Structure formats: structure tokens, C-alpha cells
């Protein structure tokens, strides 16, 4: 398995022969509702080029930091998309021609090679968005992705999972509480799934943030703190802090089910 992190929630996963782009924010600014004064993200250095030969785009949420319109406008609209219902509406409005909306419990199979199972993710407003479990059908290699630190209890029945991509820190706002809960749930997630590798997401990358919301955000937890917690609980999970744009080649052990 090969993975490349592009910062924020954006990943390229190469599993088997398939190249899957997850929650891509790759160009332009990140702004919610055109309110730059409220929150704005900028890349310190723009990407030299967009990833090519993408076989599938996966979107976990309909919010701008997951279904980023400027990026999606730059990508080929014939690329198949698997998305939460709210994110499916975004890509359909942009003219994507192969959109599969998945609710928790539903599955999609890519090229008869990879099963993608939607599971409950973060509660956003009145709806619950998606997390995803990817399984390579030939090797049985599995990957779990959830970008806000809200693992569902039902996930335990799919253990063990080889690779987990999820936050390890929490981002908290006064009065509102944690909008990302990685520091509270990363250890629990590792205990449930016993992954070989844990990759932090959501708060990393060469990205600068500004605006009122950013000035109020408080970060709790760290990669080193999670490593210490794993050691205390005798878990062998390796935590890799990804560097933006640098491919990660994972040599995973085959586990007998």
C-alpha cells in the first residue's frame, strides 16, 4: 500500500492497482461559506500538479474541507465518486457523471478489487456524515478513514484493520467544545482495531490558517502523546507522522483471519 498526504484531510491511497483520492483540497483557499474573515486556510506552497490517473474520489462530508469545490472543479468530472449524501449533492451540482451516494451500512465495489463500506462518521448539524472502511479483496488488506475522531462502536466487528487514518489531536472551541476529537478517541480506535499503522489526519500539512474561528481554536494532544499511550497499553501500532507530498510505502504483515 502506498499513501501520499496533501495536508488537512487530503490523501491519495494506492491500494492494489487502484488510485483513490480522499477528501481533496489541492488548489486555492479553504473558506467556509465565502466568509474568509471567519476562517481561511492557505497552502504555504501550491502543489506543482494535481495527482493523475485517479480511479476514484471518496468524499466523507459535504463541507468545504472535504468536498472542496475549487479542487473538484479542476479534476476530471468523469472520475467516479463515492460520497456521503451531502457530498454527493456537491459533485452532482458540479457535473460529475458517476456519483454513488453511500449512507452508513452501504457498500460500493471498485473494479471488482476494492470494497468500500460506509460507516457512521462525524455528526454535522442534524446529519451524520461518513467514515469508510476500504478492503482489498485479493489480499484482504484493510484501511479505515474518519477525519473528525468519531469512530462508531460497530467498527469493532471489523477488527483487526491494517491501517487507520484519523486525527490524533482535538480542536476545541470555547462553549462549542471539540469539533475534532482525536485526542479523546485515537487510543480507543487503536484498541478496537489493533492497526499495524496509524496515520494522523485533519491538523497536519504545510497549511496556514487565519480568521476568527482559528484564533479561538485550542489544540489538545500530539503524535508523541499517542505513541506514549500506545506503549503504556502494550499496543504495537506504529504511528507515522506524514510529511506532505512525500509518498509512504507501507510493508504490511499478512494477518491470518
For the record, the count of structural domains works out to 1
If you average the pLDDT, what whole number results?
A: 93
CATH topology: Metallo-beta-lactamase, Chain A
> What's the total count of β strands?
20
From the alpha-carbon coordinates, what is the Rg to the nearest angstrom?
A: 17 Å
Note the beta-strand portion: 25-35%
Number of helices: 5
Structural class: alpha/beta
Stretches with pLDDT under 50, minimum 5 residues: none
Measured distance between first and last alpha carbons: 19 Å
Portion in helices: 10-25%
Secondary-structure arrangement, i.e. CATH architecture? 4-Layer Sandwich
Pfam families: Lactamase_B_3
Protein name: MBL fold metallo-hydrolase
Organism: Symplocastrum torsivum CPER-KK1
Describe the structure in your own words.
By secondary structure, the chain is an alpha/beta fold. The protein has a single domain (2-241), classed as 4-Layer Sandwich (Metallo-beta-lactamase, Chain A), CATH 3.60.15.10. It contains five helices and 20 strands. It has helices at residues 69-74, 85-93, 182-193, 212-216, 223-232; strands at 2-5, 11-15, 18-22, 30-31, 40-43, 56-59, 81-83, 99-101, 107-110, 114-124, 127-136, 142-145, 163-165, 170-173, 177-181, 197-199, 207-210, 218-220, 238-239, 248-249. It has a seven-stranded mixed β-sheet, with helices on one face. A hairpin with a 3-residue loop joins strand 9 and strand 10 (114-124). The longest helix is centred in the last third of the chain and has 12 residues, at 182-193. The model has no long low-confidence stretch (mean pLDDT 93).
Amino acid at each position: 500500500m502506498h499513501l501520499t498526504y496533501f495536508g488537512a484531510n487530503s490523501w491519495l491511497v494506492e491500494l492494489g492497482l487502484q488510485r483513490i483520492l480522499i477528501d481533496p483540497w489541492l488548489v486555492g483557499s479553504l473558506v467556509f461559506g465565502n466568509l474568509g474573515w471567519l476562517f481561511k486556510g492557505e497552502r504555504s506552497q501550491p502543489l506543482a500538479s494535481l495527482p493523475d490517473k485517479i480511479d476514484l474520489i471518496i468524499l466523507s462530508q459535504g463541507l468545504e474541507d472535504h468536498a472542496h469545490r475549487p479542487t473538484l472543479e479542476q479534476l476530471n468530472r468523469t472520475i467516479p465518486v463515492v460520497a456521503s449524501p451531502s457530498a454527493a449533492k456537491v459533485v452532482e451540482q458540479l457535473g460529475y457523471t458517476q456519483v454513488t451516494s453511500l449512507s452508513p451500512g452501504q457498500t460500493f465495489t471498485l473494479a471488482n478489487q476494492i470494497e468500500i463500506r460506509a460507516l457512521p462518521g462525524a455528526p454535522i448539524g442534524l446529519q451524520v456524515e461518513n467514515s469508510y472502511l476500504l478492503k482489498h479483496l485479493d489480499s484482504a488488506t484493510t484501511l479505515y478513514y474518519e477525519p473528525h475522531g468519531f469512530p462508531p462502536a460497530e467498527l469493532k466487528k471489523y477488527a483487526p484493520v491494517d491501517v487507520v487514518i484519523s486525527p490524533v489531536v482535538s480542536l476545541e472551541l470555547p462553549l462549542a467544545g471539540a469539533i475534532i476529537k482525536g485526542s479523546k478517541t485515537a487510543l480507543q480506535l487503536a484498541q478496537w482495531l489493533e492497526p499495524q499503522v496509524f496515520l494522523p489526519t485533519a491538523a497536519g500539512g504545510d497549511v496556514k490558517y487565519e480568521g476568527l474561528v482559528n484564533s479561538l481554536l485550542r489544540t489538545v494532544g500530539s503524535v508523541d502523546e499517542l505513541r506514549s499511550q500506545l506503549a503504556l497499553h502494550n499496543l504495537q501500532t506504529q504511528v507515522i507522522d506524514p510529511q506532505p507530498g512525500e509518498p509512504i510505502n507501507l510493508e504490511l504483515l499478512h494477518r491470518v483471519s
